[in-house]
Specification:
Blueprint: E1 38-45, H1 49-60, H2 62-67, E2 70-79, E3 83-86, H3 93-97, H4 102-105, H5 114-121, E4 125-128, H6 140-149, E5 153-156, H7 160-176, E6 180-181, H8 192-199, E7 205-211, H9 214-224, H10 229-238, H11 247-250, H12 253-266, E8 277-278, H13 286-294, E9 299-307, E10 312-320, E11 335-341, E12 347-351, H14 356-372
Helix pairs in contact: 1-14, 6-7, 7-12, 9-10
């Protein structure tokens, strides 16, 4: 090199061109770019089977979440028994799973209400999994509203807020730049809402039908096998899918709430529960169920919705379904929903024997969606 110039192979002193190029993208990096990990403060409203299973699943998927740049800590838990627990430095997840001793609870002053609880916990994401109120959706609606107003994402497994406040809460989430997500409300964690929102743009839903209530499905299966109604109900309670008071399931309320949620979100029609024709399975005898099964037309509690020129007509009622229909083969805790759209004449989602981890996964998937998109 002479006078700042490169020596050319053809002779000294001849100027040479220097081309600076970035090789990024041409060859794989020997050392990958470091992933930025953010820790999200999680708050749990309700700490029953669903949210407890969610905590276990979060622990199980810890490494996969970190690969997506997501870490977490639990900063708040609220239950009737524990009260409003919050610690901005994080609560001990294992202690929570073991019952959370009085000594651990006393580390910080207890917040007095949901707003103070959210502020004390510095909540980024709230998981709402309290009991369903099919009458008015409360107090879950107030909980989710408070979460969104505080600047947290709101994720729920509770169908009530969808039926009674979907439009309001969705608008509030949009105004706050947060997400209001609810994949676990229908068919556990099967991606029904995400399927239409993320993967089926501009598809027009004409209607749907399905078997969406596990308790009645287990009872009908038991009746068909020769059990009495009480024995079939006891079986559903023993495996953990039926409540101590199973009236919401038996009378068709749970199924009707799910129909209303699907109609409001996927069909864009704010249908009210009283507009859904509803009949439960309480009038079916074991003899009727077994005779229908022998005849090749088993009873199912069928959920339906169909768009007309002016409105959506929806129903929940026992129907005899021919064996040629996929709904006839859904037994036990399994579920199915069959959509009719302008593009897909028939699109079915079937879920076989889901467990609590399936429901919890729907909430975890919503967590990943929420933080990835904001």
């Amino acid at each position: 090199m002479e006078d700042g110039r490169l020596a050319s192979p053809a002779g000294r002193g001849r100027a040479a061109s220097i081309i600076v190029c970035s090789c990024e993208g041409l060859w794989p990096r020997k050392y990958p770019r470091r992933q930025v990990i953010r820790t999200y403060n999680l708050c749990l409203l309700g700490f029953g089977n669903v949210n407890r299973t969610l905590v276990r699943l979060l622990q199980k998927k810890k490494h996969e979440l970190r690969e997506r740049g997501i870490a977490w800590q639990i900063n708040g838990v609220a239950t009737r028994r524990m009260g409003w627990l919050a610690d901005a430095n994080g609560l001990d997840a294992e202690a929570l799973m073991d019952g959370f001793s009085a000594q651990s609870r006393a580390r910080t002053p207890a917040p007095r209400d949901v707003g103070e609880w959210l502020r004390s916990a510095k909540a980024d994401v709230v998981f709402e999994a309290t009991s369903l109120s099919p009458v008015d959706g409360q107090p879950a609606i107030d909980h989710i509203r408070a979460a969104l107003e505080s600047g947290a994402h709101a994720i729920t497994a509770n169908k009530g807020p969808i039926v009674y406040a979907y439009e309001e809460l969705s608008s509030l989430a949009l105004a706050k730049g947060r997400r209001f997500l609810f994949e676990s409300t229908v068919m556990d964690g099967a991606p029904i809402f995400a399927l239409f929102r993320d993967n089926l743009p501009v598809v027009h839903l004409h209607g749907f039908r399905g078997v969406l209530n596990s308790t009645t499905n287990v009872i009908l299966s038991g009746l068909g096998e020769g059990l009495s109604f009480d024995e079939a109900l006891a079986k559903a309670q023993h495996i953990g899918i039926a409540e101590t008071d199973p009236s919401n399931d038996i009378e068709g309320w749970d199924a009707a709430v799910k129909v209303a949620a699907l109609v409001r979100v996927l069909m864009g029609v704010p249908i009210r529960l009283e507009e859904i024709q509803r009949e439960g399975i309480g009038q079916l005898s074991g003899e009727m169920v077994r005779a229908a099964r022998v005849a090749g037309r088993p009873y199912k509690l069928v959920c339906r919705a169909r768009r007309t020129d002016r409105r959506v007509i929806a129903s929940v009622q026992p129907e005899q379904v021919p064996l040629s229909d996929p709904l006839a083969w859904v037994a036990g805790t399994s579920s199915i929903v069959y959509f009719e759209t302008d593009i897909f004449p028939g699109l079915a989602i079937t879920e076989n024997d889901p467990g609590l981890e399936t429901t919890a996964y729907g909430m975890l998937a919503d967590f990943v969606r929420a933080v990835a998109e904001t």
